[in-house]
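Re: the 90-residue chain
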Amino acid sequence: MIPLLINLWPGLAGALALGIVVGVVTGWPRSRTVSLVLSGLALVLILLATAQAVPGVPGFWIEAAALMLPLYITGCAVGALGNRTNDAGR
C-alpha cells in the first residue's frame, strides 16, 4: 500500500483539491441520494480493493479509485462547509 501511496500522491492531492473546489462552487446536495450513492460506491471500491478480487491493471484502477473517491468526497464536504459558513451559497 505504501508504494501505491507514493506513486499516487499527486492524484490524491488533486482529488482532495478538486473536491474542495466542487464543494465551494456547488454547496451541499439538495437530496441525500447523491451522498448515499457516492458513499456506497466508495464502500464497494474499498471492499473490492481489500479483498483483492480483481487482479492486474484493473485491480490497480480499483485500488486507486478506492483511495481517491473518499478524498474527493471529503473535499466536497469541506468545501461545502466552507461555502455554508461564509454565506457564499445564499
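The chain has a mean pLDDT of 85.
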